Amino acid sequence: MSDVNILRQLKIMTAVLNRTMKDLEYYKKEEYEFNTKIELMKNQGRDIHDIQQQEKCLHETLQVYHEVLKRLHSSYFDLKTFLTEYFDEKLAEIDMCNLPKPDDELSTLLKNAYMELNSAELKYNILSQCKENISISTENMQGDNDV
Q1: Looking at domain 3-146, which of 3.40.50.970, 1.20.58.90, 2.60.120.10, 3.20.20.70 is its CATH number?
Q2: Residues 6 or more apart whose Cβ sits within 8 Å of residue 127
Q3: Which of 46, 97, 134, 139 sits at 20 to 30 Å (Cα–Cα) from 3?
């Protein structure tokens, strides 16, 4: 792979990881909003069919959230593998924490990629817990649908 293609691929993979994290946050927020709305509807004594419709929407959100979580893990490890494969020596030379103003495109791209990986790593433990919660929530919702 030529240097230009490697840099292009690095940009793309970094952007994919960034976008996937944003998507995950969006669906996390949407899940919270649906749960809040459903609780409010139950407290107001709304029609059971309206509540069930909102629960179906919540269920769909949980399914999409689970898929986005898989994509996040995949894009994280793809970027990490790519960096190791093509830039392992360069990364060893650069202290990412104290990187001065990047003077070339490669340094800028590496710093951005490193920052995205760190951001994903910081959220990774939280995401693992969310994944367990989603599995439990999904199982509960499937049980509710059986009734």
Answers
A1: 1.20.58.90
A2: 24, 69, 72
A3: 97
Across the chain, what does the average pLDDT equal? Answer: 82
pLDDT in tens, 52-86: 999 999 999 999 999 999 999 999 999 989 999 98
Q: Please give the angle made by the CA atoms of 68, 31 and 36, to the nearest 5 degrees.
A: 175
**How large is the average pLDDT for residues 22-42?**
97
Q: What's the angle, vertex CA 18, arms to CA 16 and CA 21, rounded to 5?
A: 105
Decide if pLDDT at 43 tops 90.
yes
Q: What angle do CA 74, 131, 52 make, to 5 degrees?
A: 120
- Span 117-135, average pLDDT: 64
Identity of the residue numbered 117: L
Those residues whose C-beta lies under 8 Å from the C-beta of residue 9, and which sit 6 or more positions away, are 1, 82
Q: Would the CA dihedral through 117, 98, 104, 90 be positive or negative?
A: negative
CA gap 87, 82 in Å, rounded: 8
The answer to whether 73 touches 93, Cβ cutoff 8 Å, is no
